[in-house]
Amino acid sequence: METNIDLKKIWNTKKIETPNVEILYTKANKLKSRSFLKLIVVNISLLLTIIFFGFIWYYYQPELVTAKIGIILIILAILIFLLPFNKQSSLLTKNKTEPNSKEYLQQLIKLKELKVYQQTTMLSIYFILLSLGIGLYMFEYVSKMTITWGIITYAITILWFAVNWFYLRPKAITKQNAKLNTLLVEFEKLNNQMNDPF
């Protein structure tokens, strides 16, 4: 049995998967650019929605207080959703150049934390307020329908919210998080290799 073990030889033959730093930064910057573009699109579409509901209130002059409360809740839901959502902008526009990987990793971790908070707490509040708002707004018009049509209208609305909440929301969250999680793992690998070169 041989007792002389050449550790250096074993170490040199060991293959370490090192992520290509330039490709990693390019991927991260691309993700940040896409996320920033999405942030702009979401802001514009939700602000247009607020203007639309303001116009409905002004032009159609709802008679029942429930419709007015409904519109207020819808606008409130949008504003509550947008305020923390826009906190991402500082992280998405920061450092398009290449900082050190530790700093970049911290930015990505902070971005991930903001996204998780947005996707859980804020999205839940948004959906609850939006559902209540639409339900209350519709009451004025549903009350003028027959009971059958009123039930059908509310059933379709509840089904639409259920599809959004239970099917589309989790799918969108999984898709959004997949790329960011991959980048986090790669940056962590890079940091570990820089901190522990041997």
For the termini, the CA-CA separation is 28 Å
Percent helix among the residues? over 70%
Q: Given the C-alpha coordinates, what overall shape results?
A: elongated
Uncertain segments:
none
The Rg value, from CA coordinates, equals 25 Å
Major sheet: size, sense and barrel closure? Answer: none
What would the average pLDDT be, to the nearest integer? 84
Number of structurally distinct domains: 1
User: What is the count of helical runs?
Assistant: 6
Query: What would you call the structural class?
Result: mainly alpha
Element-by-element helix/strand order: HHHHHH
Q: Tell me the β content.
A: under 5%
Descriptive account of the structure:
Helices cover 83% and strands 0% of the residues. It is an all-alpha fold. The two termini are 28 Å apart.
